[in-house]
Amino acid sequence: HADTPQSDTPHKRRQLSLETYHWADLIDNDDKVRMLIDPTSDYANAAAWAMGRAIDEAIVTAALGTAHTGETGATEVALPATQVVDANCASKFTFDKLREVKRMFDKCDAPSEGRYIVLSAQQLDDLLSETKVTSADYASAKALVRGELDTFMGFRFVQLNAKNSAGKLILPDVVSGSGESASVVGRSCLAFQSGGIKLGIGQDIVGKITERDDKCFATQVYYEMSIGAVRMQEELVVKINCKE
């Protein structure tokens, strides 16, 4: 009749702050006549894409930025240097970098399911130029799918070439130096396991198409959502610096 063993699981909270995103555009009635079709649906698609880019930016910023923890979210947690591959941005995206990221995930027993790598078109092209990736000797399954690398070494590859509202790529630049001597030497991409990042949806995407009587009864396409993201576990996120 031994005592029941008690294992106290450590608990820590992460703070996630919601931010509301708005998108709207007006379509004049005479524009509809000139086009001979109603472009409302195309505007709605553009709005949906804009919301998607905002979600992408929130996830990337949270994954590579500073997380907040503690009872009041006052404790800042940066992505540690041990979770950065090629800190000096010395080379392009290579097969060896991919191996290192896999080793880091395997070493911390990260689940094999739900592993992703988010990278730019240039980084994907650099990786595809590596014979080890495209060679049947290294890939038991077909690595190229319609000219794109889909799944390799347990990672699902996702291209992200979108720009934010400021016109800059969502994947951040790698900057060397500071002040007037600062220069862009490459771009960061990221690898993560799905449990390492949390996306919070306070209000899902809401779309409305209405008339604006204050704008000569033009049609307004309006979209809105409220979301936030946070990095949950540093071990499940890896920042990869690559020359471009």
Description:
The N and C termini lie far apart (65 Å). With 244 residues, this protein is of the alpha+beta class. Strands 4, 5, 8, 9, 10, 11 and 14 form a seven-stranded mixed β-sheet that branches. Strands 1-13-12 form a three-stranded antiparallel β-sheet. The chain contains five helices and 14 strands. The model has no long low-confidence stretch (mean pLDDT 89).
SSE topology string: EHHEEEHEHHEEEEEEEEE
Name the structural class. alpha+beta
The biggest sheet amounts to: 7 strands, mixed
| Structural shape | globular
Kindly estimate the percentage of residues that lie in beta strands according to DSSP.
Answer: 25-35%
Point out poorly predicted stretches: none
Look at the structure and give the mean pLDDT. Answer: 89
Total helical elements: 5
Report the strand count: 14
Please give the radius of gyration in angstroms: 22 Å
Distance between the termini: 65 Å
- Helix fraction, binned, reads 10-25%
Can you tag this structure with a few keywords?
alpha+beta; 5 helices; 244 residues
Secondary structure layout:
Layout (H helix, E strand, L loop, with lengths): L18 E9 L1 H7 L4 H25 L2 E3 L5 E3 L6 E2 L9 H13 L7 E5 L1 H8 L2 H4 L9 E2 L2 E2 L1 E2 L2 E5 L13 E4 L6 E11 L3 E16 L5 E14 L5 E7 L1
What can be said about this structure in brief?
By secondary structure, the protein is α+β, with helices and mostly antiparallel strands. The protein contains 5 helices and 14 strands.
